[in-house]
Specification:
about 500 residues, Alkaline Phosphatase, subunit A, disordered N terminus, transferase activity, Sulfatase-like hydrolase/transferase, hydrolase activity, Alkaline_phosphatase_core_sf, TAT_signal
Length: about 500
Amino acid sequence: MSQQATPQPRPGVDDRAAAGDLAPGDDPARGGLSRRGFIAGTAAAASLGALAGAANAPNAVARARDARPNVLLIVTDDQPKRTEWAIPRTVDWLAGRGVRYTNGHVTTPLCSPSRSSVLSGRYAHHHGVRNNQASYQLDQSTTIQRHLAEAGYRTGLFGKFLNAWQLADNPPHFEEFALLSPGYVDARWNVNGAVQQLPGYTTTIIREETLRFIERSTSDDRPWFAYVTPYAPHGPNTPEPDYAEVPVPAWNGRPSVPEEDRSDKPPYIQNATGTLADGRRIRRNQLRTLLSVDDTVEAFRQKLAELGQLENTLVIYIADNGFSWGDHGWTKKSVPYRQAHEVPFYASWPAGGLGGGRRDDRIVANIDIAPTVLDAAGVVPDHEQDGISLLSDRSRDHLLVEWWKQGDGAAGPRTWASYVAKDRQYTEYYALTTNADGEVSGGGEVTFREYYDLVNDQHQLTNALHQADEEDEANLGIAELAAQLAADRAG
């Protein structure tokens, strides 16, 4: 493991941002790019980018034979928003010089369903991975890696793949891989087909394996796709030894931590026991593990600059879901509240128009990643996708977010689906469950409903449907929202 000094205050992010007070951008400009601006297939533009990179890196190999961009997709585990203090260099590069998506979401706030949506561009009710045990239900022919591999890309996976995926099973359509059995220290891996234990901190191992993969582009002219998935900041949030005692900025919670009166919330939230102290502990440990992620992303940036590939590499950074720091008494994910489904989301591709430190305020989601990557690579998928390419100017006025309860146990949230817009959120809970294969059973009756005015109640403290009458519901447009939600779930 590389040795590092105890970090000094990091440039670009202050305590105000770390405390969760970083204001969203007011710039309405979107980071979209029309198809005519794509770099894919434009050899002359790619050659100029390669030459510019080579001028800054005399020893770099300027690849002009294939104009398509490299793709570096980074997916962290359980990282909520308001964690930028720990990743300032990542934010400086990908948001400060690329595009920050201020309304980034996941469509199912649970690891395996979300990752399956990242790789396929599909909702969980389409790809079938409705819970963490159902990972083998994902049709691997629908994935980014399959399409890029068949299009001539060199593909690599470094880190976690899907929950419940057997370590001995090689991940399909990846030419090279270091597949992690989730853990932080001295974990088990499948490295290109050889299952073994590797000593050291897993984020560091992921960094070194990815850097070797990128370095091989000096002798291989194919564009590459690297899917990089550190375990951080997932529990138990074990930091790298050098960061184990690093002080983090103080945090006094937010109005939803804890929410004193939860009588308008569903029973599992009324019974939740998370406290401000719990939230502070989770936040502290998550931030410490993310410091190593920031080191890793910075190493990628330096390597790309060294090789002259910084301009023509599409880099996307997202979390597979958010996490609650005691909001409404909840200290997990899997709920229809903002802390669970809103995530950090950044992208950079200077040669393709994703640059300049812009803020894109469209409602975007993990299902948009696969369409964006394939669009940039000039690949037309042979299956339907639910997401949109962020390289276009397309937008949506709302998003479907959904989650399924596995099994018949009484604890935890029931199956739910939610209509999420910028100004409001409407949620229904259902009498439905899934088995380990993600198959759904139950009558489907609506058992509880929530509506939040996100303009005047951003912390979701007041469920407007609690004790609402018919006139109240009519004024809120609940019938129309319920009809739209039903159509989204069936679509």
